[in-house]
UniProtKB/TrEMBL annotation:
Its main location: membrane. It comes from the Bacteria. Its cofactor is [2Fe-2S] cluster. It catalyses: a quinol + 2 Fe(III)-[cytochrome c](out) = a quinone + 2 Fe(II)-[cytochrome c](out) + 2 H(+)(out). Binds 1 [2Fe-2S] cluster per subunit. Transmembrane segments: none annotated. Pfam families: Rieske (PF00355). The main subunits of complex b-c1 are: cytochrome b, cytochrome c1 and the Rieske protein. Keywords: 2Fe-2S, Disulfide bond, Electron transport, Iron, Iron-sulfur, Membrane, Metal-binding, Transmembrane, Transmembrane helix, Transport. One of its GO terms (cellular component) is membrane. It is an enzyme of class 7 (translocase). Residues 86-191 form the Rieske domain. This is Ubiquinol-cytochrome c reductase iron-sulfur subunit.
Length: 203
């Protein structure tokens, strides 16, 4: 083989290898984003949940934080506030006293609409089920109307809810307010809201 032919062969091999490498790099560059797209990033996972320090919520108080474009509220109900729940139920003024409409996860299907290990803590999506307004927190008795035992009042259209966010019969709102999926961490000191309960509807 002449020197000229050897150089031509070397040149062909070099070009062939370069094309293969370029092709592999392109496939790799496209493949990585595709694989990454199948796995949510740490930022995405962090944005999908919210953590709230419940030790900073005083008895009778509440804190509302933004979460996935919605307002999530954590309320620390006193024993006196919890006692009003049975009174409201006994009055027969609730649209869905037995929680037949799935507006809460199964572990919150009770009079407190909460996890029983911390039944005083109400975790809810603070959105009226009528037209997606933000109801006011009105815990003081008689602050909305005579005989009011405490709860939530939506001044936009008059919907009312008790201290478990259960809708009262005279309200235009059709359903109880939604309870998201959540759990406790750090020995119950921190509540972590993870996602909407799939069967629940906001408005």
């Amino acid at each position: 083989m002449t020197v000229r032919k050897e150089k031509q062969e070397e040149r062909r091999e070099f070009l062939s290898s370069s094309v293969k490498l370029a092709g592999a790099a392109t496939v790799g560059a496209l493949g990585v984003p595709m694989l990454d797209g199948l796995n949510p990033s740490a930022a995405t996972e962090a944005a999908s949940s919210v953590e709230i320090d419940v030790t900073k919520v005083p008895p009778g108080g509440q804190v509302t934080v933004p979460w996935q474009g919605k307002a999530v509220m954590v309320m620390n109900r006193t024993p006196e506030m919890l006692a009003t729940l049975e009174k409201v139920q006994a009055q027969g003024i609730l649209k869905d006293p037995d929680l037949k409409v799935p507006q809460q996860p199964p572990y919150a299907k009770n009079i407190y609409r909460a996890r029983m290990e911390q039944k005083n803590m109400l975790v809810l999506v603070r959105i009226c089920t009528h037209m997606c307004c933000i109801p006011l927190y009105k815990p003081k008795p008689n602050s909305v109307r005579p005989g009011w035992l405490g709860g939530f009042h939506c001044p936009c259209h008059g919907s009312m809810y008790d201290l478990s966010a259960r809708v009262i019969v005279t309200s235009p709102a059709p359903r109880n307010m939604a309870i998201p999926e959540y759990h406790y961490e750090d020995g119950g000191k921190k509540v972590v809201v993870t996602k909407m309960y799939p069967k629940a509807r906001l408005c």
